[in-house]
Amino acid sequence: VVDKPSGVAVHGGSGVSYGVIESLRAARPQAKLLELAHRLDRDTSGLLVVAKKRSALVELHRMLREGEIGKVYLSVVKGHWEAGNREIRDALHKYVDAKGERRVAVREGGIAAVTQVKPIQAGERFSLLEVRLLTGRTHQIRVHLAHAGHPVLGDDKYGDFEFNRAVARQGVKRLFLHARRLVMKHPAEGGKLKLEAPLPPDMRAFVEKNFALSADRL
User: pTM higher than 0.90, yes or no?
Assistant: First the structure.
């Protein structure tokens, strides 16, 4: 399991020749197999699982399909979140825009998607949310939160672009979405794993400055 930095793609393609998986394979030429068990957006930081055995990869994919892996994210969003604990069930539709970029929109008849949101602290301009993915659709958290009226800070696809320009002066230079915690059984040995990745320094500094809490307690 690696703690992926924001701005690094998980694999090559779409104008990126090298990603996390290519870097790992180059660093470990003796490894018989290294495959991504799942994906993170390039601008999302945090926990990424890589399989070293085919049997582990197959089991990880099964666990993901069956919802047996708990995935918890932390996000800073625009505005005051008033909804309390909420489950967002808006269906999502993938399409390609005029520039040839992959996009996702809430659309009736789309693919089912479920996101659970728990506010940690709701301020006047920003809210800090704990987000649990019950399905793993492309850009799911970003699209669901934007559709709910609370786009993720620094989101250059679905965010509030004018607001992003304003908060960039406060240190928000990228998407403030972090894959914080994974809870799962070991795909080969069966024991329970609880994995955590601390907030990256830029997100940590912003959280501690704008919310009355220490990032160590998250």
Answer: yes
